[in-house]
């Protein structure tokens, strides 16, 4: 299983985390929404939870909870 970043996304996330002054990376997942099924969620993460699966690319950590991983396996984040 894998989640990856494009070069542009890695640069953008790195710059934004530096401006924020805190954070370990981004958290990517899915959540249940109404009758349409699932929606993606992405947010900056300030810490790694014990259950998180961590993918690191170009110095950027992508944190994914185990329940979301089957839905986003093979995803590439781009900017």
If you had to describe this structure to a student in words, what would you say it looks like?
The protein has 79 residues and is of the alpha/beta class. It has one domain: Hypothetical Protein Aq_1857, Chain: A (Sandwich), CATH 2.60.300. The chain contains 2 helices and 6 strands. A 4-stranded mixed sheet has the order 3-2-5-4. The protein has a two-stranded parallel ribbon with strand order 1-6. The longest helix has 14 residues, at 7-20. The two termini are 22 Å apart. The relative contact order is 0.34. The model has no long low-confidence stretch (mean pLDDT 93).
Please give the structural blueprint:
Elements: E1 4-5, H1 7-20, E2 25-33, E3 37-45, E4 53-57, E5 60-64, H2 69-72, E6 76-77
Parallel strand pairs: 1-6, 2-5
Antiparallel strand pairs: 2-3, 4-5
Whole-number count of domains: 1
- Silhouette: globular
Mean pLDDT: 93
Main-sheet strand order equals: 3-2-5-4
CATH superfamily: HesB-like domain
């Amino acid at each position: 299983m894998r989640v990856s970043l494009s070069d542009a996304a890695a640069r953008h996330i790195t710059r934004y985390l530096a401006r924020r002054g805190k954070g370990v990376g981004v958290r990517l997942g899915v959540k249940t929404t109404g009758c349409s099924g699932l929606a993606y969620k992405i947010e900056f993460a300030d810490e790694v939870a014990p259950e998180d699966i961590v993918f690191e690319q170009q110095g950027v950590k992508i944190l994914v909870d185990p329940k979301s991983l089957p839905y986003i396996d093979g995803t590439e984040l781009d900017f």
